[in-house]
Amino acid sequence: MEKPDWLVAMKRYEKISNSRSVRELLNSLLPYFALFAAMYGAILLRLPYVVVLLMSIPAAGFLVRIFIILHDCGHYSFSNDSRINAIFGYICGVLTFNSFPDFRRSHAIHHATVGNLDKRGIGDVWTMTVSEYQASSRPHRALYRFIRNPVVLFLVLAPLDFIVLARFWHSYSRKSDIIGTMATNLAIAAIVVIATLTMGIGPYLAIQLPIMYFAGVVGVWLFFIQHQFPGVYWVCDSEWNQIKASLLGSSFYDRPSLLRWFSGNIGFHHVHHLNPRIPNYMLKECAQSVRETQVVKPITLRMGFKSLRLHLYDEELGTLIGFREARRKLKPGRP
Asked: How far apart (Å, rounded) are the C-alpha atoms in residues 174 and 159?
């Protein structure tokens, strides 16, 4: 299928600046390590642990930025040199407890299948249709309701995903992905050993775990709101269109400038899906310049939280609905 002129024109925003990439790297890594050191200093000074926890919040913000660099490396939009993308992808992967090859693989699948009802399950949040939910057994529905509970999804599973689940490869992983995951795990283990021998395992965990916890919660929330919102595009494979899936299946999450900076402009997610080779620092300019991308209605902070009430995709209505609405569609006698 021939691409429309406006989509082709977006290629001019694939402007990778080496100096800008270095700046992005430094203004993420240096504050992160400085806060890490400050948290250790607070522990040595025996300050109340709440001081450490408070400092872990901005540290988590910088870790999210480091993940965005990993994300750009996975799309080859950090550097024009594939080797540099791989090197810094691995480094950022270790810091964020993510295997760079495994992330790159699953994320590429996500981009190729977003909004496709027949190809769900890789790189996305578990989403069932109303008909699937209705046909499921009681235990299966109970498990789904449990996982889609916001407390469980964000406060329990999100940090576990980064700290524990990311240590394993997947059924679709290739040999290089498996080796990458093992290498990442060994690098993380080496950091833990070095930290144990220097600062002590207790202080290290007291610093690293809350940073990972808050970063995991924010990271999963961002990914959730990018593809879980009223009117989101989901169709069967025979009707699937990549341009529509990018524009209508990915959100424009509009937030204050500081939050947008910490998340590397990833809120312009529809633009990112239209052209993943655009660096994070060019997404806003592209969105403001290409008129066709502005048909996407912004999601504000308040509107974003309303998406927590959406759990199932209604193929008849063509939108996400909540469990309460879905119950009305269930057969009599079924909860």
From this structure: 25
